[in-house]
Structures are given as structure tokens and as C-alpha cells.
């Protein structure tokens, strides 16, 4: 009996965390060079949640959660769709339509390079936002653009960013604090 208690989780085990207020939530990300995974780690640690690459996630795992925190890098500069260059490009168009996310809280985040890609800073975060919103999710976590030097971004609505934008290329020293205060904001918005 004791051995069982320490046995590894069986395959297909649902990774899920519950916050102090009983909200079930998870952090889901993709990455090419590790930056978005780093930021996902800051968020997961601050919120005491599990994090997982979206490529490894089962559909029913998503459906059971109250709040999804989803993050992407931007690699396809200037693209209208499939901007991330990661698994989200497939997941958003082939998996999301089959999942019921209506009424779930969704907060989006991502990494970009505001200096080298100043006209397209973190555009893929705007795509995450648009598709989850169109699917009926309750979008939370918009942030101020103060402290950034980009010229344009498809992740902006009404003068704000639609979620948390981090720049590990130029402002890596700000990411952890930005993640911490964003998690506090998500709590105040009732999403955690
Ligand atoms: C070829 C290439 C294209 C990129 N395009 C963009 C872009 O359009 N917008 C942006 O903000 N960052 C762009 N970036 C920067 C990456 O998004 C940034 O380095 C990010 O932190 C990478 O995240 P990852 O390590 O999680 O993949 C690009 C980088 C490269 C090398």
C-alpha cells in the first residue's frame, strides 16, 4: 500500500491545480528557444500552478479547467494567421474548434522582441486572444503598454496589451516581476 502512494502518475493522468479560492487552472505554452517556457515558469511559480507544453495536453484536460493561462512566442513575422511558429498554429485551428471553452477565464501571454520586430511585437499573443475570445471564453489580464518601446503589435486593443507581454531578448530582467504582478492582477479579476 505504501509503495502505491509513491508510484508515478499513470499515463494520461490529468495535471491540474486548484488555487486557494478553489479555481482550477493551468498554464499552457509553446516555445522554440525556451523563452516562453521561462516566462510560463515564472507564472506557474507565482500562481502555484502546473505548466505544460500544449503539444502534450489532452483535450479533456482543458475542458475540466476553470481558467486557462496560454502563452506563445512569435516567429512568423507579419503573418495574419499561424503567427506563432509553434504547435499553437495547429492547435488553435484544428483542436480548439472541438473544445468547449465558453465561459472559461482565459489569460494570454507571450514573448517577442520589441527592438528587432518593433512593428510586430508579440503578434501571436493577439491571435491567441482573438481565437479564444471568438470561441466564447471570458478574456482577462489586459496590461498597460508603459515600459515598452515597440511601434506596433497585433496584441493591442484599445491602447492596451491583451495580456502579459515579455521580452526575453531586451528586458529579460523585468519578466519575473511582470509575471508576479500579472498573477496578482488575475487573482483580483477572479480568474485565480
Ligand atoms: C526569424 C525570427 C522571427 C521573429 N519574429 C518576431 C516577430 O514577428 N515579433 C516578435 O515580437 N518577435 C519575433 N521574434 C523574436 C522571438 O519571438 C523572441 O525571441 C521570443 O522570445 C522567442 O520565444 P521562444 O524562445 O519561446 O520561442 C523573431 C525571432 C526570429 C529569430
From TrEMBL:
Q: Which UniProt keywords apply?
A: Electron transport, Flavoprotein, FMN, Signal, Transport
Q: Which GO terms describe its molecular function?
A: electron transfer activity; FMN binding
Query: What does the record give as cofactor?
Result: FMN
Q: Which PROSITE patterns match?
A: FLAVODOXIN, FLAVODOXIN_LIKE
- Superkingdom is Eukaryota
Q: Does the keyword Disulfide bond apply?
A: no
Q: Tell me the Pfam families matching this sequence.
A: Flavodoxin_1
Domain Flavodoxin-like, which positions?
A: 25-187
Family classification: Belongs to the flavodoxin family.
Name of the featured protein: Flavodoxin isoform B
What organism is listed for this UniProt entry? Thalassiosira oceanica (Marine diatom)
Amino acid at each position: 500500500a505504501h509503495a502505491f502512494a509513491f508510484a508515478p502518475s499513470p499515463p494520461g493522468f490529468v495535471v491540474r491545480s486548484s488555487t486557494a479560492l478553489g479555481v482550477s487552472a493551468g498554464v499552457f505554452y509553446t516555445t522554440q528557444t525556451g523563452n516562453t517556457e521561462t516566462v510560463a515558469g515564472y507564472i506557474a511559480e507565482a500562481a502555484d500552478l502546473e505548466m505544460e507544453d500544449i503539444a502534450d495536453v489532452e483535450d479533456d484536460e482543458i475542458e475540466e479547467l476553470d481558467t486557462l493561462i496560454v502563452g506563445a512566442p512569435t516567429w512568423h513575422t507579419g503573418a495574419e494567421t499561424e503567427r506563432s511558429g509553434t504547435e499553437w498554429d495547429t492547435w488553435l485551428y484544428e483542436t480548439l474548434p472541438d473544445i468547449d471553452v465558453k465561459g472559461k477565464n482565459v489569460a494570454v501571454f507571450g514573448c517577442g522582441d520589441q527592438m528587432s520586430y518593433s512593428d510586430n511585437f508579440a503578434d501571436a499573443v493577439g491571435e491567441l486572444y482573438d481565437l479564444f475570445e471568438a470561441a466564447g471564453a471570458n478574456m482577462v489580464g489586459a496590461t498597460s503598454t508603459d515600459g515598452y518601446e515597440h511601434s506596433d503589435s497585433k496584441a493591442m486593443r484599445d491602447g492596451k496589451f491583451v495580456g502579459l507581454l515579455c521580452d526575453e531578448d531586451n528586458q529579460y530582467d523585468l519578466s519575473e516581476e511582470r509575471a508576479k504582478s500579472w498573477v496578482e492582477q488575475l487573482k483580483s479579476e477572479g480568474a485565480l
